[in-house]
Amino acid sequence: MALYRAAAAVLAGLERGEGGLKSLVFNSGFPHVRQLYALVSETLRYASVLEKLLDGAALLQTEKKLAPQLAKVLVYDLLFGKGLKCGGRWKALARRHRARLEAELARMKVRHRVSRNEDLLAPEKAVSAAASQVPRYVRVNTLKTCVDDVIDFFKRQGYAYLGKAVSVEELKTLSGKKFLLDLHLPELLVFPSQTDLHDNLLYTSGHIILQDKASCLPAFLLGPVAGSHVIDACAAPGNKTSHLAAILKNKGQIFAFDVDPKRMATMNTLLTRAGVTGCQLAQQDFLTVDPRDPKYSRVTHILLDPSCSGSGMVTRGPGEEAAPSAERLQALAGFQRRVLNHALSFPALRRLVYSTCSLHQEENEDVVQAVLQEWGSAFRLVTAFPSWPCRGLAAFSGAESCLRASPAETLTHGFFVAVLERCKEGAAAPSSLPAAAKENPQPGEGTEPGAAPKKRKKKKQWMK
To answer: Which residues form a coiled coil (predicted)?
Structure first.
């Protein structure tokens, strides 16, 4: 039974947006991680089928004490796996409902005119196909190296550098050992989706960060100048925090909060490997942080990426997309509104980025609209990345200032980003941030913030 409880806990963590599939499995404490990963992966793959089976058989209505996540893994192994590997009351429960579940599965096959269980997965296969097009994005950690040197290193490893991409379509054609410089972000390299760099020296030494392009947008769009004081409100596992440190050039101060001790330990390891300094980690719920504390009197920028449904996350294996209930979405949106309101209450705040890895309007445009209405004319939206192709849903006037990302349109995870700026009487109108993609230079061609350094650094010993 320990296997099923561990699998149910991982599914619940995914729904709460506490991490990715691999990290939750490996941090679960379950001794047989491969067995657990396989069970959760297959349960996720059949998620929509399992939900219909549970509804059709009224299992959760009959067994009111049975958690939905536990029900899914039990029914998966009962009907699609190798049979239940447990005894006691859970096996007895499954036997009581087996006939009803099998009958509902048979009706589903008749309705869809299929004969095999696999054939019920056609919609999931389409999602998986879109996800498989998402490339491997590699952010150069400018705290330790520069874009030019990383490109040279990969070239010496037999990779072919094709220059800067000119369109999203060009990213789809990558194959083999070829890579490009991203067309939007100046320190992001793009490799074919199947590229595995976890054992590469650059990754293990912290010179590169494996981070999806959409996940790089919040820190990039926040754009604090060196010397700024910044809060990363929901920081773990730390990729965005390390990105902020790189933008700040380790000059200034970052306050990073997360309530989960395991995630904070992972974050501390990541930041140390990345060479981040000037960052104070606090295992604390951001909602309990006092904005009037003198420690935060100089905080001008806040990156807020709160817990969400995680419905925009995709994997290179089985899908991780969550399917939260209406009640779950309502609860998440309520929390997101509270934490965004709290973030805006810091007295010196000038700019804030609100982001989620959710596709749901309730967690994105609706949250931003509600909070802006509460604050009246104190804050307004900045038009983020005017050249970005996907804008916010037209939920309210100004939603087009927000941006969205998706596997199909931007070849990234699903994401939402809004940039808010404080309004001051007599202040100049906020400019669009950042400028069009064409203003981002090739490595060595420019010196504006975010561009690769013009002067090549001396080769590091590890690159020789």
So the answer is: 91-118
- 138 with 109, same domain: the answer is no
> Is 357 a catalytic site residue?
yes
- Which stretches within 346-428 are classed as H helix? 365-375, 407-410
Task: Flag whether 232 is marked binding.
Answer: no
Q: With the CA atoms of 380, 382, 388 and 392 taken in that order, what torsion angle do they form, in degrees rounded to the nearest 10?
A: 0
Higher pLDDT: 417 or 115? It is: 417
Would you say 86 is a known binding-site residue? no
**How far is residue 236's CA from residue 218's CA, in Å, rounded to a whole number?**
14
Same structural domain for residues 272 and 341?
yes
**Domain housing 45:** 1-122
Q: Is 85 annotated as a binding residue?
A: no
Cα(356)–Cα(127) distance, integer angstroms: 20
Highest average pLDDT, of 75-89, 97-111, 233-247, comes from 233-247
Query: The whole model's pTM is what?
Result: 0.69
Residue 223's SS3 state is coil
Instruction: Check 279, 308, 357, 402 and give the catalytic one.
Output: 357
Asked whether residue 239 is marked as a ligand-binding residue, the answer is yes
